[in-house]
Amino acid sequence: MKKFLILISILLICPACYAEKNVEKISLQEALDIALENNIDYKAAKMNIDIALNKVKESNRLQNPEINTFFNMGKMARGEPQAVGLSEKIEIAKRDARKKLALSNLELEKQNLRYTEFDLKMDVREAYVNLVAAKEILNVLEQRRKLLNDLLAIAKKRVAADEVEEIDVIQTEIALDQLVIQVNTQKANVKNAMYNFNKVINIGNQSTIKYDAQDDNFSDKDDFIALLSPKPLAKLPSFEAIKESSLKNRYDIKIAEQQIDVAKKNLIYISRQRVPDIELQGGYTFITHGMSDSGTAVNGAFAGASIVNIPLFYAYKPEIQNARTEVNQAELRYMSVRNKAINDLNSAYEKFVTAKINLNYYNDNLIKNSNEMIKVAKKNYANGKSSLTTLIVMEQSYRSIVAGYTYALADYYNCWIDFLREVNAENFDLNEESI
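The chain above was modelled as a monomer; its predicted structure follows.
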């Protein structure tokens, strides 16, 4: 029985230890490096480059030759040569156009991959910030529980001294019970944020490692370096100063431009299909002595040429018209992408400016004043100068401000990431972009 209990204890303890060892805390930069090296979607996207390179080689191909034979049978074969030879189709004005189209598609795939890589980095940063924010909110709730426990101890002491009624203890216990629900909910939110973080990194089910954010809170990040963000007090350039340089660097605009180039090269390639090709033939001819009129074997050769694919009955008009339409579509798509980019950039800029203002307001006023407020309120209740109801209201107000500060920090980081998405720059230096 004793051995059985020891075995059960080991089985219960080991999984917990194993799970704990499988959670690895990493910094934001480490998360970015791991995602770029192991993300399954990114690996699949990189394969498109190999496919496009092979299509470039394919586009440069020569036509394979054909083996031809010609034999006369029966009496028709007497005095007539037999032939064995090769024929080769020579494309005119098509091979070069096909290769340029494939090279243009290769450049398009490279642009798409750069955009995929950038988008992955932004997704990792956003998931990391959201995970830290969830942990920070949990910390706020835990601190609030600690404060309520302190209040409960004070209330019990005052009840024991007949300074207040038993209702103060009951009221504090109710507040604590309600807080337990919030804490449990937030713990689930932290787990969910960690799952999302690992989903973005996406290293596959073969890995037994689960990643967690190294940072557990925002509050001590005065330099903001760990989360790759500027200080809230940093001066932000005007929108016009950012717009033009950003529009030149945006991946979606570059991709739209490249799609126009692909469409134009495709139009050239399709139009070249109307150019006739040449087919060359050549080979060996012979007459056996049994079939020769002279009774001796005769050897020789033959050569010939044909013009093939003459656009007489079909001139590829539907294909050419579609190719022209695709050029017009690509040009309209480019205009649409550029117009949307300006609006999205403006929106992200305004949101980030607002997030900076809100965060600085918390830093300059609310946090300092609320800290002082809760200290005074707690002291007053301990000294019998205020009621518990007043203290709990102030405590809720204080925690609301602290939670609001946490949300403001998370909003600041996320607005910065959204701003980076719109300027399409992983490291946007505010000083360099200033005018």
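The first strand starts at residue 23 and ends at 26.
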